[in-house]
Design goal:
Layout lengths: L21 H27 L3 H21 L3 H26 L14 H24 L6 H8 L2 H12 L1 H22 L10 H15 L22 E2 L5 E2 L5 H5 L6 H22 L1
Antiparallel strand pairs: 1-2
Catalytic activity: a quinone + NADH + 5 H(+)(in) = a quinol + NAD(+) + 4 H(+)(out)
Subcellular location: Cell membrane
Organism: Lawsonella clevelandensis
């Protein structure tokens, strides 16, 4: 079954590695190796990235690159499965988990499990060795009986369907159940239970009046800060009718950090500005 990714003369040789001239075969191999290097670099960035959203994007790039590699090797069914299942459904699940955990969550300092990095490095080396051995066993000897098995099954896709839903159906269902359990486990781990019950509106009102009776705390909202022409209202206290400052109009932290400015001085400056404006208007008249 021939597969064509695009009608362009540049991409067409990539889809015909098994058939065609030797020039197109070499051109397809060169592009395949270049794409493989980019895929490996994206996979390394995915592992080393400390941002969850960045790791998810690198993983998506790896999956799409793998799909293009399948297309180069004339495997249209695996190409479509890679796009629909992995780059589609699996990535949606990953992004869903990232959104629950938090896109801005960074990797914590140090290893939460002692020896985690060493174990991860050893497992990665073991996977590299196993993958290299498997690839060498597949690529070095010529495949025997592949055409016969495909012809007896009625084609490549019907043969895959018989293996997945007949011979290996139990393993396939166990794998699907494992993915569901992983998604449910992620949801359970990200749930945040309240340590105490949220007070009702009546309980909050009673607590405010109780604090007023015991400590004299104002039950109302905090009064607004002063507004002057030369300053904003966040660092300047409001003035009472007698000209004194109302300290409760701004937070106590500003007084403690000495960031609060005197409202009386700004009021005098404002009055001087008004007098200057009145004098200027009188001269114009």
């Amino acid at each position: 079954m021939a597969f064509t990714l695009a009608s362009s003369t540049t991409i067409a040789p990539m889809m015909t590695l098994a058939a065609g001239s030797s020039a197109s075969h070499i051109w397809g191999q060169v592009l395949s190796w270049m794409l493989a290097i980019v895929i490996v670099a994206a996979a390394v960035c995915m592992v080393l990235s400390r941002k969850l959203i960045h790791s998810a994007l690198y993983l998506l790039f790896v999956m799409i690159g793998m799909a293009i590699e399948y297309a180069i090797l004339q495997a249209p069914f695996v190409f479509v499965v890679q796009i629909v299942v992995y780059a589609g459904a699996i990535m949606v699940m990953f992004l869903f988990i990232v959104m629950m955990v938090g896109a801005n969550a960074d990797a914590g300092k140090g290893d939460p499990i002692p020896g985690q990095r060493i174990a991860a490095i050893l497992m990665a080396l073991a996977m590299i060795i196993i993958t290299a051995v498997a690839v060498s066993l597949v690529t070095w000897p010529d495949p025997v009986g592949l055409d016969k098995a495909t012809h007896s099954a009625g084609g490549n896709i019907p043969g895959l369907g018989q293996l997945i839903f007949n011979k290996y159906v139990i393993i396939f269902e166990v794998l699907s159940a494992l993915l569901i359990v992983a998604a449910v486990g992620a949801i359970v781990l990200t749930l945040r239970t309240r340590s105490k019950k949220r007070p009702s509106q009546r309980e909050t009102m009673e607590a405010r009046f109780r604090a007023y009776a015991e400590k004299g705390t104002d039950v109302g909202a905090m009064p607004g800060a002063g507004v002057y022409a030369a300053s904003n209202a966040m660092d300047v206290p409001a003035l009472l009718p007698d000209g004194t400052e109302l300290h409760s109009s701004i937070s106590d932290e500003m007084y403690e950090s000495r960031e609060a400015r005197s409202g009386q001085e700004l009021a005098e400056q404002t009055q001087q500005h008004y007098k200057a404006l009145d004098k200027h208007e009188g001269e114009d008249e």
